[in-house]
Structure formats: structure tokens, C-alpha cells
Known about the structure:
Helix 3 runs antiparallel to helix 5. This protein has a single domain, classed as Gcn5-related N-acetyltransferase (GNAT) (Aminopeptidase), CATH 3.40.630. The longest helix has 17 residues, at 109-125. It is globular and about 40 Å long. It has five helices and eight strands; from the N terminus they run E-E-H-H-E-E-E-H-E-H-E-E-H. It is an alpha+beta fold. It has an eight-stranded mixed sheet with strand order 1-2-3-4-5-6-8-7, with helices on both faces.
Amino acid sequence: MTWLKSVALEGDVVLLEPMQLAHADSLVSAVQDGQSWKLWYASVPSPEGMYKYVETAVESAKNGQPAYVVRTKADRRIVGTTRFYDVKAQHRRASIGYTWYANSVKKTAVNTECKYLLMKYLFESSEALSLEFKTHYFNQTSRAAIERLGAKLDGVLRSHQIMRDGSIRDTAVYSILAHEWPTVKNHLLAKLANRV
């Protein structure tokens, strides 16, 4: 039985829709709003690599690792992706990642509400014990965003991955535990109330 289901998650600002192959063209448009795929420390797909990226995400979703497109409710535009991965049903834990957005929605309520919806689903509907975030040690933008959510740094996995350019990635690992969720939830709701 699959622990995490691919269900739509809706907030005031965004709708997280289970990713489908038909979303690929919209995601190409979203990633072309900026050039995030050129950042050496980021794992954002290029426009040319988007179809393979979506295929892989859709296949992972069939194996209990839901992947989402992020749609803004105001204009119904797809502006990025996020997903659950490294899902360990037997330990009631999962990671959230593969998150990237069009430049036009960065520093808006989009990321905060996306993470709120994913965490609420994970902790309240799926009774998770813990949630992890992993990012490149040098991705200071991502690390700051994770810390603003209320996650705590667990440590750094050194020489953890080989990047597509051949460089070696040290990975910063953050977590939120089930007993921390009520406080994190209040924090995120307050942030959203101030931004919406």
C-alpha cells in the first residue's frame, strides 16, 4: 500500500497538482522565466531537459513519491515544481525537494504556501514522524529559505554527490520533527497572513 498519495493540495495562493506529462510545455515556459538551470549549485532542469525531468517525476510518483506542478490561483499559471522524495513509509519520513520556481514568483507567498501545504499533508494527513530538506552547501538562497520555514540544520554530508558538471557536492541536511510541526505551522500561517 502506498503511504503518500498523489492528491491535489490547495491553498489561497497556489494549487499543487499531481504532475503529468502534459505539464511539460508549461514547465518549459516557467523555467525560461529566469535562468536558474545555469546556477552551478542548483539542480534545476534546462528547457531541453524538461521532458525527461517530467517523465522521471511521473514515474517516481507511481512509486509513492508524489510530484507536483505549482499553479498560481490568481492567473492559473504553472510557475514551478516541488515533490516528495526519499519516502520511507516504514519509518514515516520523507524529504521535500526538487523545488524550483519561475523568477516572477520568487520572494512571494508561493514558496511559503507550497511548503505549508506539503508539510500539513505530511504531518496531519499522513502522520509523519519527520521531514527532511537537502540542498547544496553553497546554495545560500535555498538554505536561507529552508531555515525561514523553521527547519533545523542536522549537519553536512561531505562529498555526498557528484554534480552534473563533475564538481563534488557537500549536502546540508535540515529537518522538522512531528512534535515541532504545531509551532512551525503557526509560524508559517503568520507569515502567510502578512504576505497575502
